[in-house]
Design a protein that fits this description.
By secondary structure, this protein is an alpha/beta fold. The protein has helices at about 35-50, 70-90, 100-105, 110-125, 140-150, 155-160, 185-190, 210-225, 230-255, 280-285, 290-300, 315-320, and strands at about 25-30, 60-65, 90-95, 135, 165-170, 175, 260, 260-265, 270, 275-280, 340, 345-350, 355-360. A six-stranded mixed β-sheet has the order 3-2-1-4-6-5, sandwiched between helices. A five-stranded antiparallel β-sheet has the order 7-10-13-12-11. A hairpin with a 3-residue loop joins β12 and β13 (about 355-360).
C-alpha cells in the first residue's frame, strides 16, 4: 500500500471535481475500489460535505465490488475500503462477484466481465432506490486512454465519445465528477492529505491493452503533445455533441424513410413476427448526402432490435455498394444480390429497395 507522506508544503488539500450535479439532499453512493482515484473522490467528497458554510449537503455512502480475482490482494483491498469508510463514518456495502465464472459463461474478456458485473451492482443499487446517483472515479487520464483505445479499434463517433460524464438510467444516474481531473492532481491531493491508497497489481500487466497504452504509448505521445490528455478529452466531448445532434436528426428522418417488412402484391407490406425486417427505398437513399446515408444505414440496422450488430465502416461501405452508391468490385450491386454480415444480418437488394433482416444463415 503506498504510504502518503506527511502534509508537505504547497500541496493542494482540496481536489477539483464537478459539483454541478450534486444537489443538496441527494443520496450519493461512491464506487470505491481502494485505488488512488476512488479513494481521492471519496475523501474529497467527505471533506467537502463537512465544510461549515459550503457543505455539499449530500447523503454519502460507498460501495465496493470484490470481483473474485487476485485472491489475498483483493481481500486486502476490501479490508482497506472497509477501514477507510469506518474511519470516515461512511456506510459501506460490499458485493462479491465471480469474474472467472462470468468469463466461462459468456466468453467475455476479464476486463469486460469485471465491468459488466460491477455495473450490474451499480444498476441494482439505483434500481432499488438506495441512492439517487452513483459516482465513479474516472479521470482525465482514463478518458484519454479510452479515446485512444477506441481510435485504435476504428470506432465511430459514438465510440469516440468514450466515457460520458453522466449516464441517465430509468432510476438514478451514474456521474463521473473527476473526468476533467488529472491523475497528477489526484496523487498530489492524496499526498497532501496524507491519505494512503491501494495499488492493483493487474494495472501493471502488459496483457491488457489499456496498460500498454498507459505505460508505453501515451508517454511517447505526451512527449509530442504535453496537452494530449486534454486534446483527447476535447475530442470525446465533440464526438458526444456530434452524436447527440445526429440522433436528433435521425429521430426526425427515419420515420420518413424506413419501411417495415416486405411489399406484397396488390399493395401494402407483410411484417414477419419471427424475422425482423426493414427496407429503404433506393431513390430516397440516393437523395441523401453521403454522411446521412451512412447514418441512416446504421440506424436502420439498429432498428431491428437489441440483437442487431453495430455496423463497421467496411460493412457500411459494402451496403452502400450493394445499393449502387459506391464502387467495390467484390460486392455485387445488381437487383437480387444479397450480403450476409455479422450477427445473422442479411441485406438484399430488390429493383427499388434495400431490405435488412435478422435471421440465421442456413448451413451448407
Amino acid at each position: 500500500m503506498p504510504e502518503a507522506p506527511k502534509n508537505p508544503r504547497n500541496r493542494p488539500t482540496t481536489l477539483p471535481f464537478d459539483r454541478s450535479h450534486l444537489t443538496p439532499g441527494a443520496r450519493i453512493c461512491v464506487a470505491v475500489s481502494g485505488g488512488a482515484d476512488s479513494v481521492a473522490l471519496l475523501t474529497a467528497l467527505h471533506a467537502a460535505n463537512a465544510l461549515p458554510r459550503e457543505s455539499l449537503g449530500v447523503g454519502l455512502t460507498a460501495v465496493h465490488v470484490h470481483h473474485g480475482l487476485r485472491a489475498e490482494e483483493a481481500d486486502a483491498d476490501a479490508a482497506f475500503v472497509h477501514n477507510l469508510c469506518s474511519r470516515l463514518a461512511i456506510p459501506l456495502q460490499t458485493h462479491h462477484t465471480s469474474v472467472p465464472a462470468h468469463v466461462e459463461r459468456t466468453g467475455e474478456t476479464i476486463e469486460e466481465a469485471a465491468r459488466t458485473l460491477r455495473y450490474q451492482v451499480f444498476h441494482q443499487i439505483l434500481s432499488k432506490g438506495e441512492a439517487d446517483a452513483l459516482l465513479t472515479a474516472h479521470t482525465l487520464d482514463d478518458q484519454a486512454e479510452t479515446v485512444l483505445m477506441k481510435l485504435l479499434r476504428g470506432a465511430w463517433t459514438e465510440g469516440l465519445s468514450a466515457i460520458h460524464p453522466i449516464l441517465t438510467l430509468p432510476k438514478g444516474r451514474i456521474l463521473r465528477p473527476l473526468l476533467h481531473t488529472s491523475r497528477t492532481e489526484i496523487l498530489a491531493f492524496l499526498n497532501a492529505t496524507s491519505q494512503p491508497w491501494r495499488e492493483d497489481s493487474s494495472n501493471l500487466s502488459p496483457v491488457h491493452t489499456r496498460n500498454r497504452l498507459r505505460h508505453h504509448i501515451l508517454p511517447l505521445l505526451r512527449a509530442e503533445n504535453p496537452s494530449l490528455d486534454h486534446t483527447l478529452s476535447n475530442l470525446a466531448e465533440l464526438a458526444r455533441e456530434e452524436e447527440a445532434r445526429w440522433q436528433t436528426e435521425l429521430t426526425r428522418l427515419l420515420p420518413q424513410i424506413l419501411l417495415p417488412g416486405t411489399p406484397v402484391r396488390g399493395g401494402g407490406r407483410s411484417v414477419s413476427t419471427t424475422t425482423p425486417t426493414v427496407a429503404i427505398e433506393l431513390d430516397r437513399l440516393r437523395s441523401l448526402d453521403p454522411p446521412t446515408r451512412r447514418r441512416v444505414l446504421r440506424a436502420a440496422v439498429q432498428s431491428l432490435g437489441t440483437a442487431a450488430p453495430r455496423l463497421s465502416f467496411d460493412e457500411t461501405d459494402r451496403l452502400l455498394t450493394l445499393c449502387g452508391l459506391r464502387e467495390d468490385p467484390p460486392v455485387p450491386s445488381r437487383p437480387g444480390s444479397s450480403l450476409h454480415l455479422a450477427n445473422h444480418l442479411r441485406a438484399e437488394r430488390s429493383p427499388r429497395e434495400l431490405r435488412l433482416s435478422l435471421h440465421p444463415i442456413p448451413k451448407k
